[in-house]
Design goal:
The complex is a heterodimer of chains A (about 375) and B (about 270).
Chain A (H helix, E strand, L loop, with lengths): L1 H27 L6 E8 L10 E4 L2 E10 L8 E8 L11 E6 L6 E5 L13 E2 L1 E2 L5 H38 L2 H8 L1 H30 L1 H10 L22 E6 H4 L11 H13 L4 E8 L5 H22 L7 E8 L10 E7 L18
Parallel strand pairs in A: 1-7, 2-6, 5-8, 10-11
Antiparallel strand pairs in A: 1-4, 2-3, 3-4, 5-6, 9-12, 10-12
Helix pairs in contact in A: 2-3, 3-4, 7-8
Chain B lengths: L1 H7 L9 H27 L5 H11 L4 H25 L6 H39 L2 H7 L4 H39 L4 H8 L5 H9 L1 H17 L5 H33 L2
Helix pairs in contact in B: 1-2, 2-7, 3-7, 4-5, 4-7, 5-7, 5-8, 5-9, 5-10, 5-11, 7-10, 10-11
The chains are: A alpha/beta (about 375), B mainly alpha (about 270).
Chain lengths: ~375, ~270
């Protein structure tokens, strides 16, 4: 009967759907494959449910069949799980189980790690080790602490930035030393003034030193030496005598003019007066005082002494006679090359006629001490 | 409520007093109890009307299949579209198969099938039995020593009970397929993966109790429809009222029963 065939087909079809449904769900629970049982103990299963998945290497290979509370307070929660027989190849006695969460809010499942190759195989009903589960609440608490400290750090950083900003503002507004340095014109001027004062101070010190030289206590030293200022030694010095023939030449032994062999202190001023009078009476182009010392003593010191002697003679002439001091030059000849009757050295004043100019001025290129 | 109660008793009018309404309400339940008792007696006692049962199963089951399949398919498509819209907003599109499966298997499939069968089969039974009643065919049957409860009522009730789970499974299948199709339109996915991820967290408790609770739906539809048909009074109007009453009341009791069944299933199969 066609109606009954139709009915039969419908019934068979619907029952087939039922069978497929049961098979699919049962397969999900590993109800139709050969399994073995393992158990593992945890302090807390953090909400793991019976029927939860067991994953081996991330692959769904088993089901949590039962979760048992311990018999006494010291015990642990035991999780019984069914695993497919195929997992025996990778799960060994040293495999560890852990409770993991799928996603942040997802279901809990048990992850079983691979064992080591040399570890013995697991048997049905064996116990494997466990890793304590990551408690999400504890994690959140930890994250909270971290966030708190981060917040504090950020607040500090903000404070620091704020301080920097304030400092910057103050500098801009000209507060404080740095600000003043950067902003205050007066400060700059003060600095300039201070530098000027320092210069003046040095000058004053020089003057003081100068005054000191004339002080009675020290005067003797300078008086004895015959001159006071070392800087003046070569002020009017020239390098050598001009090539032109001289108008007149005065020669003196050092003994006739100077106090001692090793000083430039004038003694025989009468000898020089003759020269002075000559210079006053005659117009001349250039007069050069050439002084030398005896050969005793240090060559350098003698050079200085000769320069000093030439200077002292020149100063005497300039001070006491009406002569054009610009035409009066000096040469410190150092130790006299000619044989001397004594150790005084000699002084000669060479006068040149009008038209003879002074050669290149002697500079500080020669080795003269201060 | 008044309009519902008016269906309980065809003699009631809008102008009935509350006392009269309450009276007919309890009268209806009393008659239903007597009806069920007589049905049970007739159904368990041999001989059994096998041929008539097969005919009714074909009538209730096979002929309802296109309607139920279409309704299930539509439901699956709607769930897929709706969940995609809402779950995509939370970036949980991977949960769509699971939502479709759970929704269809646990509630949508059974209740949609129940309402469809209540509409199609309930109306048919109510009208058929009602017209037989008003044309006194049932009285004639009794006169010829044929138990109308055994021949007419029991076969229809048993057919409804047996066919409901099978129709539900068909609706589930169609719903899952259209759900997959609709999901594939936006996120192409293989049927295997779709079914696998849909059933990943599924349990037998999510599948078998909801499917077999439709046995109760079938019982309600069969009993209410037959009861409404058997107590038809009056002419063609009475037949119409019987048909309406069987659809409306079986649908109503089906939904109410579903509330209780869901609660019981959750308690018994957590």
């Amino acid at each position: 009967m066609s109606n009954n065939v139709r009915l039969g087909a419908f019934i068979v079809g619907a029952l087939a759907i039922l069978a497929v449904g049961i098979f699919l769900i049962g397969d999900e629970k590993f109800m139709f494959s050969s399994t073995y049982q393992l158990n593992s103990s945890f302090d807390s299963v953090i909400g793991l449910k019976e029927g939860a998945a067991v994953r081996v290497g991330g692959v769904h290979k088993g089901t949590v069949t039962h979760i048992q509370l311990p018999a006494n307070p010291g015990g642990k929660v035991t999780v019984l799980m069914d695993l497919e027989n195929s997992t025996r190849d990778v799960i060994k006695q040293d495999s560890e189980s852990s409770i993991e969460t799928e996603g942040l809010l997802g279901d809990k499942y048990i992850a079983v790690s691979f064992g080591s190759a040399q570890a013995p195989d697991v048997q049905d009903g064996d116990s494997i080790g466990s890793r304590p589960p990551v408690d999400f609440a504890a994690l959140v608490k930890k994250a909270d602490t971290i966030l708190d400290s981060t917040e504090a750090t950020v607040r500090n950083a903000n404070q620091i930035t704020e301080n920097f900003r304030e400092v910057g503002e103050k500098i801009n507004r000209g507060k404080g030393t740095v600000g003043a340095l950067i902003n205050d014109r007066r400060m700059y001027e003060e600095a300039t003034t201070a530098a000027r004062n320092a210069q003046q101070g040095v000058k004053a010190f020089e003057e003081n030193m100068e005054a000191l030289k004339h002080n009675w206590f020290l005067r003797g030293f300078f008086k004895e030496r015959g001159y006071t200022d070392t800087k003046e030694l070569t002020k009017n010095a020239i390098a050598n005598l001009p090539q032109a023939p001289p108008l007149e030449e005065f020669g003196f032994g050092g003994k006739d003019i100077f106090d001692k062999p090793d000083t430039a202190k004038l003694e025989g001023k009468q000898a020089l007066d003759k020269v002075g009078k000559f210079l006053e009476a005659n117009s001349f182009g250039l007069a050069v005082v050439v002084a030398s010392t005896g050969i005793e003593g240090d060559k350098n010191e003698n050079l200085i002494l000769s320069q000093a002697r030439a200077m002292v003679v020149r100063e005497y002439l300039v001070d006491h006679f009406r002569v054009d001091d610009a035409r009066l030059k000096t040469i410190g000849a150092g130790e006299s090359s000619r044989p001397q009757p004594d150790s005084f050295g000699e002084v000669s004043i060479v006068v040149y006629p009008v038209g003879v100019e002074a050669p290149v001025a002697k500079t500080s290129a020669n080795k003269i001490g201060p | 409520m008044h309009s519902v109660l008016s269906n309980l008793n065809s003699r009631m009018t809008v102008f009935d007093t509350p006392k009269r309404v309450a009276y007919s309400f309890f009268e209806w339940f009393g008659e239903l109890g007597v009806f069920c008792a007589r049905l049970l007696r007739s159904a368990v006692a041999p001989p059994y009307e096998g041929r008539e049962l097969l005919r009714q199963m074909d009538e209730v089951g096979t002929k309802s299949l296109p309607l139920v399949a279409a309704a299930g398919a539509a439901t699956g498509a709607v769930i897929a579209l709706q969940t995609h819209a809402s779950l995509a907003r939370f970036g949980a599109t991977s949960l769509i198969p699971a939502v479709i499966f759970h929704s269809l298997l646990e509630e949508s499939g059974p209740i949609i099938t129940g309402l469809m069968v209540a509409g199609r089969v309930g109306a048919a039974i109510g009208a058929e039995l009602g017209s037989m009643k008003v044309t006194e065919q049932i009285d004639a049957m009794e006169a010829s020593a044929v138990d109308p409860f055994k021949y007419l009522v029991a076969t229809r009730v048993v057919a409804c009970v047996l066919m409901m789970p099978l129709l539900t499974l068909s609706a589930d299948l169609c719903g899952v397929l259209t759900g997959w199709l609709m999901t594939s339109l936006t996120d192409p996915v293989s049927l295997t993966l779709f079914v696998d991820s849909g059933l990943r967290h599924a349990d037998f408790n999510d599948f078998l109790p909801p499917t077999f609770k439709t046995l109760v739906f079938g019982l309600i539809i069969g009993v209410i429809a037959c009861f409404q048909g058997m107590r038809t009074r009056g002419g063609a109007t009475g037949v119409g009222k019987a048909a309406t009453g069987s659809v409306v009341l079986s649908s109503l009791f089906l939904v109410v029963a579903d509330v209780l069944l869901v609660k019981i299933i959750l308690a018994l199969f957590p």
